[in-house]
Amino acid sequence: MGRVTFTAPITLPGLTLDLQWYRRSVFYEVMVRSFYDSNGDGSGDLAGLISRLDYLQWLGVDALWLPPFFASPLRDGGYDVADYTQILPEFGTLDEFRELVTKAHERNMRIVIDLPLNHTSDQHPWFQASRSDPDGPYGDFYVWSDTDEKWPDIRIIFPDYEDSNWAFDSVRRQFYFHRFFSHQPDLNFTNPRVHEAVIDVVRFWLDLGVDGFRLDAIPYLYESDEGNGEGEPETHEFIKKLRAIVDRDYPGRIMIAEANQWPREVAAFFGTDEEPECHMAFDFPVMPRIFYSLRSQSADELVAVLSETTDVPSWAAWGVFLRNHDELTLEMVSEEYRQAMYGWYAYDPRMRVNVGIRRRLATLLDNSRAELELAHALLFALPGSPFLYYGDEIGMGDNIWLPDRDSSRTPMQWTPDRNAGFSSADPGKLYLPVVQSLVYHYSQVNVESQLAQSRSLLHWIRNVIHVRKAHPVFGLGSIEVLDTDNPAVLAFVRSYAGAGTPVGDQPEDVLCVFSFAHNPVAVTIDAPGFAGAELFDLFGGHRFPSIDDDGRLHLTLGTQGFFWLKAVRR
Ligand code: GLC
Ligand code: CA
Fold first, then answer.
1. What is the pLDDT of residues 219-244, one digit of tens each?
2. Catalytic site residue 258?
C-alpha cells in the first residue's frame, strides 16, 4: 500500500492549509464536565464550553483537547466508554458538539478529542454481548481466558485499586483481561472485527469535523507471551494503519500518543517517514524532570534528557506539559528519584495515588509566583507544543480530600460568586465541590479577579503565550543544549532556519536560560557558535551584554530567574 506523508502546505485557491499546524499550537486540556455549567444541573456541558470559547481565544489557545465526553458510567472520568458515538446526556447532544466544532473553527481554534480504544466500560453493549454470548458476533471482542495466570510480566497500572490484570466474569465463567480498572475490559485487537469497529468510531468523529485524536493508553493494545504488553510490534502496525487512513482521507488531522514510557519507546510512536505513526507524543520523559530540577536546584537531569538525541521524523512534535487530569506520574524514573519527589511534593500520603502525585501545579509549587513563572517559561521554550491544563493559568488549587484524581478535576473558578461562577446549581449538587481551601479559595483565585489585576498570573501567562506565538522558532526550531559552569543553570539555543512553512520565513536563534537555584547566581555559558552575537530580551526588546569573542557569556540571574534572548549573529 502506497502511503503519502503530507509535510508541505496544501494550497487551494485563496487558502493555505498548514498541515503542520500542531507544531505551532498552544493546546489546552479541558474536561467538559469541569468548565462551565450552562443549565444549572451541577455539571459542566458542551453549551457551557461554547460560551467560554472567547475566553480561550483571548488567552491565545489554538487547540482544545477534550477528555472523553461519551456515554459512560463515569467510573473513570469518562475513560470508561459505554458508547463511542453517543454523548453523555448531561454533557449535551451531537448537535451541540457540531456547534462547538463550528464555533471553535470560526475562532481558528481546533478540537482534538480523546479516544480510549484499548478498553471499554463493562457497561458497553459489546461487553454485555461478549459475556452472555461467547459464540455470538461479540464473543471474541475482549480478551478472555480460563486462567488468570497468563502474562504475569505485565505490570499493574493502578496498584492502589487493582491487584491483578484479570477479573472473573460470573456470567461467562471466564477471566477477562484489563490493564486499568476491572470495570474496563480490554478490547481484543487480534480480532479484525475489533479493528473495523474501532475504525468506524474514528471515521465517525473525523466526519463530524474533529481535528485530531489523543490516542489514550495506546501502548497497551496488544499483549504477547514474549513482551510486556507495552508497544508490542502489532500495536505499532495498528497505529500505522490508522495513520494511513487519516493521511489518505483526512489530511491535516492529527494523532497524539499517550505513551507513558522510556524516551526511546515513546519516540517509537512517531514511526518513520516511510511508516508514520503519530504526529505527536506527550513528553513523559521531560515532565517529571522539570519538577525534579525545581527542588534539587540542579539542571543535570534536564540537561541529560534534552541532550539525548532521539531520531524522530521532521514532522513529529512533542506535546510538553506540566500537569494534566491524571496524577503526576513517577513510573518512568528511578526509585531513588521517585522517593525524592515524594518527599518534596507528596509529604502527606493523601497526595499520592498509584505511582504518582495527585496535585495541581500551583499547590505542587507552593503557590510560588517565581516558580510558576519559571516552570511556564521553560514549558513554552522547550521543543514541542505546550499543553496547559484548565485552571492552571489562574493557579487553581486542588482538594486532596476527594478520591483518586478527582482532587484536581474540580470546577473552574470564574468569579468570587456562588459555585465560583461555574454553575447556578445548589452547591450540594455540583459534580465535585469547588475549592475552598485557605490559600486557594475561589473568592481569591478566579478568572474575574485576575482579569482585573494587570500583574496577575493569568495576564502573565497570556503574555508569554503571545510572545511565544510571535516567534515560530519555539514550535519549529531545533535545540542545542549549552555547557554552563553552574549546575543550577540550564541553557539552550532554539534555532529555526526559517523555510518550508507558510509562516515566519525569518531565520531566528533564541538563547533560553533558566536558573533553578533558590538564590541569585552568576553563570558563564559556552555558546561557541555565537561568538560576538548581540542579545536582546524577547519580552522588552532591551539589549543585553553581547557574547564575547571566544563564545562566552557571563550572566547573573535572580532567584529562579530566566531569560529568553534573541541572538543576532555577527
Ligand atoms: C489514560 C487516561 C486516564 C485513564 C486511563 C484509563 O491513562 O489519561 O485518565 O484513567 O487512560 O483509560
Ligand atoms: Ca449542565
1. 999 999 999 999 999 999 999 999 99
2. yes
Q: Which residues surround ligand 2, an ion (CB under 5 A)?
A: 37, 39, 41, 43, 45
Amino acid (one-letter) located at 560: Q
3-class DSSP state of 331:
coil
**Cβ neighbours of residue 2 under 8 Å, at least 6 residues apart?**
none
Q: What is the pLDDT of residue 262?
A: 87
Q: Per the residue annotation, which of 258, 326, 508, 509 is the catalytic one?
A: 258
CA of 76 to the centre of ligand 1 (A): 8
Rounded-to-integer distance, Cα 306 and Cα 289, Å? 10
Q: Any idea which residue has 463530524 for its cell? A: 208
- Identify the residue whose C-alpha is closest to ligand 1 atom 8: 326
Helices (H), 192-299: 192-207, 233-249, 263-267, 286-296
Helix intervals (H) in 365-519: 369-379, 447-451, 457-469, 473-476
Angle between helices 369-379 and 286-296 (to 10 degrees): 140
Amino acid at 173: R
Q: Compute the distance between CA of residue 323 and CA of residue 141 in angstroms, rounded to an integer.
A: 34
Using the mean position of ligand 1's atoms as its centre, give its distance from the Cα of residue 344 in Å: 25
Alpha helix (H) ranges present in 360-456?
Answer: 361-364, 369-379, 447-451
**Could you tell me if the CB of 561 is within 6 A of ligand 1?**
no
Region 301-326 average pLDDT: 94
For residue 299, give the C-alpha cell.
539542571
Average the pLDDT over 446-468 and give the result. 98
Q: Write down the catalytic residue from 216, 230, 232, 509.
A: 216
pLDDT, tens digit, 9 for 90 and up, residues 19-40: 999 999 999 999 999 999 999 9
Q: What does residue 22 show for φ and ψ, rounded to 5 degrees? A: -65, -20
| Centre of ligand 1 from the C-alpha of residue 181, in Å | 10
Please list the helix, strand and coil fractions of the chain in percent, rounded to the nearest 5, in that order. Answer: 30, 20, 50
The pLDDT confidence band at residue 2, using thresholds 50, 70 and 90, is very low
Work out the average pLDDT over 344-362.
97
Separation of alpha carbons 11 and 289, rounded Å: 41
User: Using CA atoms, how far apart are residues 123 and 71, in angstroms rounded to an integer?
Assistant: 10
Rounded to a whole number, what is the distance in angstroms from the first to the last CA of the chain? Answer: 50
223 is catalytic: no
Residue 204 has pLDDT above 70, yes or no: yes
